[in-house]
Amino acid sequence: MRDLEAVLQECERKLEAIHIPFNKNVTVRAGKLNARTWGRYWIYKNMIVLDPVFTDDRMQTFATENVLMHELLHSCNDCISHSGLWKHYAQKVNRTYQYKIKRCSDYKPYMNEELLGEFMQRFKYVARCEGCGTYVTQVRISDFIRNMDQYRCSACKGKFKRIK
Questions:
Q1: Residue 149 pLDDT > 90, yes or no?
Q2: What superkingdom heads the lineage (predicted)?
Q3: Is the dihedral of CA 63, 138, 46, 58 positive or negative?
Q4: Tens digit of pLDDT for each residue in 103-140?
Q5: CA distance 132 to 159
Q6: Does 115 reside within a domain?
Q7: Could you give the C-alpha distances from 86 to 19, 40, 51, 61, 151, in angstroms and in order?
Q8: What's the number of domains the chain is made of?
């Protein structure tokens, strides 16, 4: 079980080193989130909530640091949205520490096969691109699931195949 507080302290140390002002009163915990969300910064609670998958030792530490750094940047003044100052800070962190912070990220590639299988059990519908292997997961039926042959992968233009 990964210690999220220790990872938070490491991320805070890195932000201080490159002079990015952030909320130093933030706490972190694992908890249930919306199916489309890896993490969330609750501004009124000064709390970052991460998907429990990030506390699992089978998830690469890089991914935990990346999502935690993303949410920590939201604690900076005027950084609630993914534009302007937040985007500038994210680029600065990416350049300095080789993170891959962006508006939307997929952390499934950082899971081992066993953890990925457990993670996929949360979803009723799973499709995979036949070209690049990207997964699309959904809890409810959608036009994408009903008419998968009419959709293409945005990364490689490949076709999707329904797995579950």
A1: yes
A2: Bacteria
A3: negative
A4: 887 777 788 888 888 888 888 999 999 999 888 888 88
A5: 10
A6: no
A7: 14, 15, 22, 23, 32
A8: 2
Q: What per-residue string of b and e applies to 83-122 under the rule 16 or more CB within 10 Å gives b?
A: eeebbebbebbeeebebebeeebebbebbeeebbeebeee
Predicted TM-score of the model (pTM): 0.77
Measured in Å, how far apart are the chain's first and last C-alpha atoms? 29
The whole domain housing 72 covers: 4-109
99, 153: one domain: no
Cα gap 54→50, rounded to integer Å: 7
What is residue 93's DSSP assignment? H
Retrieve residue 128's tokens: 């995979």
In this structure, the answer to whether residues 51 and 99 fall within a common structural domain is: yes
Q: Which secondary structure element, helix H or strand E, spans residue 160, and what is its range?
A: strand 160-162
Same domain? For 96 and 129 the reply is no
For residue 79, report the phi and psi dihedrals to the nearest 5 degrees.
-125, 30
Q: Record the tokens describing residue 53, joined without a space.
A: 């998958």
Q: Distances from the Cα of 65 to the Cαs of 8, 79, 98, 119, 133, in angstroms?
A: 8, 18, 11, 19, 24
- How far is it, in rounded angstroms, from Cα 56 to Cα 105? 18
Residue 15 lies in a domain: yes
**Is 25 found in the same domain as 63?**
yes
